[in-house]
Amino acid sequence: MFLALLCYNKGMKKSDLTAASATENQTEIAALKARISELEVLVKYYEEQFRISKHRQYGASSEKSEYDLAQLSIFNEAELFADANVTEPELVEVEKHYRKRTRLTTDKLPENLPVEVVEHDLPESERICPECGGPLHVMGRDTWRELVIIPARVKIREHVRMVYACRDCEKDECGVPILKSPVNEPVIKGSFASPEAIAYLMTQKFVMGSPLYRQEKELQQNGIMLSRQTMSNWLIRATEDWLEPIYDALHEMLCRHGVLLAR
Fold first, then answer.
1. Separation of alpha carbons 109 and 97, rounded Å
2. pLDDT tens-digit map of 212-223
């Protein structure tokens, strides 16, 4: 039996051993490749987690400006800042002016605000005593005050320029001198824009953070059809014609100094 097995092993072909060895190698290579793929996925996962951690620690999400926070809370602003437990502040008279005396809030009103007095009186026909029919007299006054906010007023300013001529020269049919009253040049030639309108649009956009499309809707609610395109043109033209020269003059003035401090 032993001799038979020995003869069988000696008779085995070398090609069969080579094929078996190649199959084992291919299996090992496939397993290694699968392991490498798993490790690559893990590395990418840990890199992403590290990036997210750094972003949370140093990224822009922790550096939101006051304007960004205001934009995020623009629709629930009233709910965020309202407090039913805060009492209503009172208006007290100080040297014929009115200012707001604060208690638990920081609300303040300018002392030079105009005061409109509205009197509520009975008609003369009703100033009769219901008991005896005698005339009534004023025995006291109940007074309360409220803050009135009037939206921006819009109007049209029409310029009328006087033109003068000489009647004596007109009679002689000679050269008639014509004089015109001096006027200021329009802020934008050929446009109906006024300095007040452009200043209002700039303040609303760059100070109050109200984009032009919101201003367009607000004006439409007041019956004024002023497109964003027109407002954009006004802002660009006014900046180029009036603000850029000031910027250039300031830049030239700064360049004359030997040392500048900037932050």
1. 11
2. 999 999 999 888
